[in-house]
Amino acid sequence: MNWLVSLTIVCLAVQCSTAVQYPEDVYSSLAFVFDTTGSMENDYLQLKSHAESIMNYVLTRNNTDIKHFVFVPFNDPDVGPVTETFDPKVIMHKLNQVLIRGGGDCPEMGITAVIRALKVVKPNSYIYVFTDAPPKDSHLVYDALELIQRKQSQVVVLRTVHDCISTDKSYENIASLGSGNVFDVNKEDVSKVLQFVKTSMDTNRVNLMSVNIPQKQLIPFPKKLNIDESIKNLQVSVSGLNSNIGVVNPVGKKMDEAHGLITDLDLKNVKIVNILEPIPGEWTLYITSESAHTIRACGISTKNFDFGFATSIPKNMTQTSHRPLKGAKNYILVNCPDVKKFVSCKIQDLSSDGTTEALPILDFGKNLLLCGPFIPKNNPFYVQVFGMNNNGNYFRRITKTSIIPNEPDAPYITTTQKAVGVVGGELHINCHVESLVPFTVTWESLNYPQQAWNFSQSSEIELVVRNVTFQHEGIFTCGAQNIAGYSESTTNVTIISKPTIAEGSDNVTLVLPEGGDYALKCTGQGIPSPLMIWLMNGSPVSSYSDHILVVNDFRRLIIFDIPLGDSNVYTCRAINEAGTVEKNYKIVVKGETPFPMIANESLIINELDDVLMNCPLTNMNHKWLKDGVNINDLVYKRADEQHFKQINRSLKIYELDELDNGVYTCMSSNETYTFHLRIAFAPLFIKYQPETMMISKNETVVFDCRARGFPKPRVYWRKLESAFPITPWTLKDTEYLEDKQVLKIHNIDWIHNGTYTCIVKNKLGSEKRRFELYVF
Ligand SMILES: *[C@@H]1O[C@H](CO)[C@@H](O)[C@H](O)[C@H]1NC(C)=O
Ligand SMILES: *[C@@H]1O[C@H](CO)[C@@H](O)[C@H](O)[C@H]1NC(C)=O
Ligand SMILES: *[C@@H]1O[C@H](CO)[C@@H](O)[C@H](O)[C@H]1NC(C)=O
Ligand SMILES: *[C@@H]1O[C@H](CO)[C@@H](O)[C@H](O)[C@H]1NC(C)=O
Ligand SMILES: *[C@@H]1O[C@H](CO)[C@@H](O)[C@H](O)[C@H]1NC(C)=O
Ligand SMILES: *[C@@H]1O[C@H](CO)[C@@H](O)[C@H](O)[C@H]1NC(C)=O
Ligand SMILES: *[C@@H]1O[C@H](CO)[C@@H](O)[C@H](O)[C@H]1NC(C)=O
Ligand SMILES: *[C@@H]1O[C@H](CO)[C@@H](O)[C@H](O)[C@H]1NC(C)=O
Ligand SMILES: *[C@@H]1O[C@H](CO)[C@@H](O)[C@H](O)[C@H]1NC(C)=O
Ligand SMILES: *[C@@H]1O[C@H](CO)[C@@H](O)[C@H](O)[C@H]1NC(C)=O
Ligand SMILES: *[C@@H]1O[C@H](CO)[C@@H](O)[C@H](O)[C@H]1NC(C)=O
């Protein structure tokens, strides 16, 4: 087989995160990392119920994008097992089953547990750590930070007061370099903190300022903060002993509780205040604290920026990596929607008290900014972007997490987990490879030859398979090799096919006799099996109405006792993920042809009524003929004076009955004029038939409901035991004869046992018969 394959490099617009997100991955996770060592015993029940209340909060929030839940218990030395689920009940169950035990010495394996959680969470997630001890695996902090950067996730540590004396700052590092917090809480503070935690769970949080002050500060040093109009909520938090937060708005007014400032949390070592709907402009913060402290300002805003690093000038975001290459020249590409002018692009070194370095900037097209090049120091840093937006307000943003330059890493690969191809169409599979150094990509699968391509930096690689067949179904692997290693990621490819209709999708016009039965067939095929629906003149038909029945999984639409008014278009539609196909049946119902015009005038008069026929001929010879015979010469009983009366040129007939049917003629010397007279009468059964019949299996039975009547009566058949009409498609071996006046059943079987009725009907009346069929 020779498949046409082509490779294209595509850029996807990447929002809010440097990690490429495919639609199926756009949701975030909520993770609980739970210390289960013996010392937690006292607090376990309470912490568990707090974890549950966070969970409940997330579930009752309607617009939540948290869909994925993770639970990681840790002890000493065991961590795990990790539970990952989309079902919150599973996590509740795990929380209830926690076994508190072990952990003789104080420090526990907390960082390892955080790393395990970070590995499975989706980008932009929330991780809550519940512990009462410092970690003993601090050497892994950088691994955790690497993951925090990649996952852009928030780690919040709730540390209950413990007996262990420790100077370990690992959790603080994770919190301050990531975008989280460490709360050292007494038992009675826990619920206050959790209340705060709940309200701070917002995917639209943006970072406005983050500063570490390594010493106490008793006289406040004013700090400026630019607030743009997109910021709905300003939150300032200070972690430090006995801190105080003063906030002054752009018009110089000091904010207090009476003027829109809300204190969210006020503990000995954490203070958090909140200002709703802050007015845009330059705000000032006055912060004091009796110890080294961290100041952080966040806002709720849908306007954030996206950034990436590259060692040579990137064309677009797909060609960047989420962190810079250590010791090399790096560029930063920033994408910030709604920007009029970039003012500066800075890196803020976190090891000093907020020192920033401005980078050369180069506008790079719409909303894009290229900064650099720069050679990063080995310290963690934030990227700060400052500019003016389209409304003329200044805005400032800093990265959600800190960034640490890195040695070249093995490529980081993201692929769609699932891809669907349609037979005969094109299959597109994307593979995004993030790498700061050149790499080689390979795509392969069982039924697909391996191919390799070289790239100099991060890229989106798209595999396109043309003329897709079912053989392309399977696992496709995208692998990438660079000097630091090899990684791969797979895509599960499913092939589907467009539906077809076995009976052909050509439109059909059917001319059907009034009162008949007809089955329209429509068998939809395709993978996956199509869903079938029937429409009448474009609207779905209900599966059963007075003359429509849909059976056999929508494969058949039966129209029974077709009324004249049923000249409609019936459409059967087969739908699956690959497409839709339709077949139209245009039904034309033909009424009984009116009897041929054999006279100058046709008359239909009800039985027992009188008729007056006026001859229009002026010189009429006063002779009326019936069927060519002078009526005065007729000899049978209807010919007497009481029934016929000739008045001048007219003929009157009294109390009509069936015998009066005929052609009446009047004449003059050179002309004739005729009337065709039909007498209408209610149906009458022609033949008597016993109403109870005993028929043995495999025999044949005939139910005779032949009837006279004018206009010709319609016949309606039912079987009392069935809600459905009797048609060859609803009751096997049935057949109608003589315009449905006779029902014949061949090969009598048990299902035929029962009571049958026929109703013969015209506009003058109806008659009904009942037959009981005993099958033995
Ligand atoms: C793919 O399909 C097109 C259109 O049906 C056909 O012209 C072409 O030859 C096919 N290519 C291969 C490689 O089968
Ligand atoms: C991104 O850059 C690559 C390499 O030049 C290019 O092939 C691709 O079309 C670009 N994508 C967009 C959206 O500009
Ligand atoms: C979520 O939606 C339900 C019903 O639509 C409503 O009763 C409830 O108040 C909503 N909850 C929140 C937090 O908005
Ligand atoms: C990719 O680069 C390697 C090493 O430079 C080279 O051996 C190989 O031929 C290249 N492959 C392609 C497809 O260009
Ligand atoms: C690929 O997806 C199909 C359908 O969703 C599933 O049945 C199959 O088990 C998957 N294969 C693998 C290897 O995951
Ligand atoms: C059937 O009729 C519909 C509506 O008139 C039309 O759109 C469609 O193209 C026809 N299908 C075929 C196969 O002719
Ligand atoms: C009556 O019908 C006959 C035969 O069709 C025709 O020749 C004649 O002209 C008709 N008479 C009148 C008055 O219409
Ligand atoms: C019959 O015709 C004559 C003459 O045209 C008229 O006087 C008489 O009233 C008519 N008879 C009837 C019953 O109409
Ligand atoms: C028949 O005769 C009458 C008079 O005798 C005349 O008025 C009429 O036109 C004639 N009709 C035909 C069809 O010749
Ligand atoms: C009825 O007919 C079927 C097939 O025609 C036959 O197999 C069966 O034996 C017959 N049963 C009786 C009772 O005659
Ligand atoms: C067969 O039909 C008759 C008439 O409706 C009914 O009385 C009888 O109960 C039926 N027998 C069985 C076994 O259903």
Task: Please give the number of β-strands.
Answer: 57
Count of alpha and pi helical runs: 6
Q: Strand portion, in percent?
A: 35-45%
Q: Judging from the principal axes of the Cα atoms, what is the shape? A: elongated
Bound molecules: 2-acetamido-2-deoxy-beta-D-glucopyranose
What structural category characterises the helix and strand content? Answer: mainly beta
Helical residue percent band: under 10%
**Distance from first to last alpha carbon:** 63 Å
Provide a descriptive summary of the structure in words:
By secondary structure, the chain is mainly beta. Helices cover 9% and strands 45% of the residues. It is built from 6 helices and 57 strands. The strands form 14 sheets. It has a 6-stranded mixed β-sheet, sandwiched between helices. A hairpin with a 2-residue loop joins strand 46 and strand 47 (650-653). Helix 4 runs parallel beside helix 5. The protein is elongated, with a radius of gyration of 44 Å. It starts with a strand and ends with a strand. One 2-acetamido-2-deoxy-beta-D-glucopyranose (NAG) binds next to loops. Residues 1-19 form the signal peptide. Pfam families: GBD_Hemicentin, I-set, Ig_3, VWA_4. Keywords: Glycoprotein, Secreted, Signal.
